[in-house]
Design brief:
Length: about 90
């Protein structure tokens, strides 16, 4: 079984009120090194078998057509889920 991660973010020109709220709270909590926050969405898709280029292409298409609102969001990442991307280690 393989897993694919699809990440979606608001387009740069779209206001991100959740990100603004978080960036305002960070300094009050002692995190002064961050100057900007954008909040997005992450989807993890499971597939039977290995993650192939065809599976990644289908995941990108699903991201662009179903998982995101293309008017205000961009699909910014489509990749096999690995430990580096926050997946469980084998």
């Amino acid at each position: 079984m393989g897993r694919v991660v699809v990440e979606v973010m608001p387009k740069p020109e779209i206001l991100d009120p959740q990100g603004k709220a978080v960036v305002g709270a960070l300094p009050r909590l002692g995190f002064t090194q961050f100057t900007s926050v954008r909040q997005g969405k992450r989807f993890e898709l499971e597939v039977e078998g290995d993650v192939t280029p065809e599976v990644l292409a289908a995941a990108r298409e699903a991201g662009e057509k179903v998982l995101s609102n293309p008017v205000i969001e961009d699909v910014v990442l489509v990749a096999e889920l690995t430990a580096e991307l926050g997946g469980e280690s084998a």
